[in-house]
Write a structure and sequence with these properties.
The chain is mainly beta. The chain has a domain at 35-127: Sandwich (Immunoglobulin-like), CATH 2.60.40.790. It is built from one helix and seven strands, in the order αβββββββ. A four-stranded antiparallel sheet has the order 1-2-7-6, with no helix packed on it. A three-stranded antiparallel sheet has the order 3-4-5, with no helix packed on it. β1 (39-43) and β2 (47-53) form a beta hairpin. It is elongated, with a radius of gyration of 22 Å.
């Protein structure tokens, strides 16, 4: 018989994730991000990469601001002009302004950031700051 290590709070972690998911996905929830873009943030050895889903927004209506610690995406999702006088049967897409701040997991070189927008996906690549090596010397004790 093999032994499986018991994680005392593992079930609470699963419950917490379930509650977070419920609150974020509930219609009309105050926790819902509304029309804020969904993002993936990951890092390689050299850089941090942010991918944001922003379909239907032109580059002119999209603004990206960056510093060493975070990235701010803002913009405008506009309603199609053809719908103005139509009798709309259903509308599920969200329109209006959005803004979202994404903190970086590490310090980055913001001045070297690159952005690309293709097929509704905004990809931002930012080189990471190299960790500083402690410069010092040994001190003899007298």
């Amino acid at each position: 018989m093999s032994l499986i290590p018991w994680q005392a709070f593992g079930d609470f972690d699963n419950i917490g994730r379930g509650i977070d998911s419920f609150l974020e996905n509930t219609p009309f929830s105050i926790f819902n991000r509304g029309n804020s873009p969904r993002v993936d943030v990951y890092q390689t050895e050299q850089e941090v990469i942010v991918k944001a889903e922003i379909p239907g927004v032109s580059k002119e209506d999209l603004h990206v601001y960056i510093d060493e610690n975070s990235l701010r995406l803002s913009g405008q999702m506009k309603r199609d002009e053809q719908y103005k006088d139509e009798h709309i049967y259903r509308t599920e897409r969200v329109y209006g302004s959005f803004s979202r701040v994404i903190p970086f997991p590490v310090e980055v070189k913001s001045e070297q950031a690159k952005a690309e927008y293709r097929e509704g996906i905004l990809t931002i690549s930012v080189p990471k700051v190299e960790p500083t090596k402690l410069k010092g010397r040994r001190i003899d004790i007298q």
